[in-house]
Amino acid sequence: MKFSRLTKISLLLAAFFFLDKVLAFARQVLIARQFGLSAELDAFNVANNIPDLLFALISGGALAIAFIPVLSEVLTRSGQKPAWLLFSRIANLAFLVTVALAILVAIFAAPMVQAELGIAPGFTVAQQHLVIHLMRLNLVATIIFSISGLVMAGLQANQHFLLPAMAPLFYNIGQILGVGILSPEQGYRLGPLTLPAYGLGVQGLVYGVIIGAVLHLAIQVPGLAKYHFKWSISLNLRDEAVRKVLRLMGPRLLTMFFIQLIFLVRDNLASRLAEGAVTSLTYGWMIQQVPETLIGTAIGTALLPTLSEHFSRDEKQAFSERIDKAFKALLALTLPVTAVLATGLRPLLGLAFDFGAAGTRMLAWVTAAFMLGLFGHSLKEVSARAFYASQNAWVPLATAGGNVLFYTLCGALLYRPLGAPGIALTDSLIFSLEALVLLALLIRSGRVSIVPSSTAWRALLGCVSAGAVTWLGVTLLEAHAHPLISGSVPMFAGILVSLPWIWREIKLLTQL
C-alpha cells in the first residue's frame, strides 16, 4: 500500500504522540497511586493553569500557529537565511514578553488564586497557599518553553517533524523523574535496584516539570544545527514579516486566551464541588486527549505547513481536497473510538488509578462525558488550522469568544445537578458546536467543498455496533474476569466490529 507524504507524516506524528501518551499515562498512574484524589493533588493541577496559559499564549499555541504560515511563506519565496532571521526576531520577542509576564504573575499570584472569580475560590486557605507556591515555581518551566515551543514551530515549517515529535517524550521523562524520585519519601524498587527518593512531595512534581522543559528544548537543538540556524540579536518590529506574524498573533493570542480561560472556568466550578472533582476532570481530560491527539492533532499538525503552501501558491482545489479527505477520515475514526472508550474504560480505570469504587465511578462518568466531544475537538484541530493557513485568525477568534460565553453559562447550569460529569459534558457540547461552525464558515467562504458521500451513515453504524459490542462484553465479563480482561477484550472486539463500516476511510488516510 502506497502512502502519500502527508499520510507518512501523520503516521509518524501519531506514533510519537502515542508513545508520548503512554509515558503521560504512566506518569499519571504513578501520581494517582502516590497522591490519590487528594487536596494536595487538586492544588497541583490547579497551579498549572496560569503557567499553561502563558505558554499557550506566547509559544505553545498563539505564536506558534501564527508563526508557521508566515515562516513557510518566507522559506518558499526567500529561502532559509531570511527565514531564520525572522525566527530569531520572533524568538527574542517571545522570550522577553514571557519573562515580563511571568514576573507579573508571580507578584499577583495570590489574588489570581483567592478572588471569587479566581482559579480556586472554593479551596481552603492552606490549599490556596500551596497553589500560589507551586504556580510561582512552575513559571520557570514556562520561560524555557517560550523558546522550545518556537523551535518546534520553526522545525515544522522546514517540514522536519521527527525531533518536534520526540520532544514531548522527553518532557514526560522529566516529569516521571519528578514523581518517581523527587516526590516520594521512599524509593521505588526496580528488580534488584532501588531508586533514590528525596521526599519533596507535590513540590517534586513541579521540579519534574522544569526538568522536562529543559529536555524538551535540548532534544530539538540538533534540528536547528541541521538546518543551519544562526541566532541574530535583533527585534526589528518594523520588518514586514515580523509585523505579519504579530498581526496574525493578535487575534490568535486572544483565541488561545479564550481556550485557556475555559480551563480556568472549569476549575473554578470544580473547586466548589467535593474533593477530587478537579483531579477527576484533569484525568478525564487527559484520557480524552489520547485519541484526540493521535487522530485530530496528528492530522492537523501535518496539514498546516502543506495548507499554508497551497494558500501561498493559490492552489484552491488542492486546499479544498485536503480538508475534504481529513473531514471524512476524522468522522469515520472518531465516532467508533468514542463509543468504545466511553463504554469500555471503567474496569481499566479502576485497575490503573485505584481511586476506590466511588472515585472510579466518578472518573468513568467524567471520561465518558469528555469522549462525547472527541469528534468536535478533532475537527477543530483541522478546521481552525485551515483558517490560519489562509492567514485569517479573526474567524477562530470570534468562535472561541462565543465558546467561552456558552461554556460558562452551560457549565453554571450543569455543574450542580450533574457534578464533575456535567462540566465534562459542557466541554463536549460547546467544542463540538464550535468545530461545526468553523467548518460551515469554511464551506460558506468557498475555500472548502465537502463532497457528499456515505461516510456519515457508515461512521454512525460503526459507532453503534462498536458501542453495543463493547458494552455487552463489559457487562458479561466485569463480575467474573480480571479488570484487564473485562476492559481490553470488549474494546478490542468493538473496534474489530467497526472496521468493515469505516474501511473505506481508513484507506483514504493513505492518500491524505
Describe this entry's structure for a reader.
The protein is mainly α and 512 residues long. The protein has a domain at 273-512. The protein has helices spanning 5-35, 39-47, 49-60, 62-78, 80-107, 109-114, 125-157, 162-182, 202-218, 221-226, 240-270, 277-312, 316-344, 346-353, 356-371, 374-389, 394-418, 420-445, 455-477, 483-508, and strands spanning 189-190, 193-194. A two-stranded antiparallel ribbon has the order 1-2. The protein is globular, with a radius of gyration of 22 Å. It starts with a helix and ends with a helix.
Fold topology:
Layout: H1 5-35, H2 39-47, H3 49-60, H4 62-78, H5 80-107, H6 109-114, H7 125-157, H8 162-182, E1 189-190, E2 193-194, H9 202-218, H10 221-226, H11 240-270, H12 277-312, H13 316-344, H14 346-353, H15 356-371, H16 374-389, H17 394-418, H18 420-445, H19 455-477, H20 483-508
Antiparallel strand pairs: 1-2
Helix pairs in contact: 1-8, 1-12, 2-7, 2-12, 3-4, 3-5, 3-7, 3-11, 4-5, 4-7, 4-11, 4-12, 5-7, 7-9, 8-9, 11-17, 12-13, 12-15, 12-16, 12-18, 13-15, 13-16, 13-19, 13-20, 14-15, 14-20, 15-18, 16-18, 17-18, 19-20
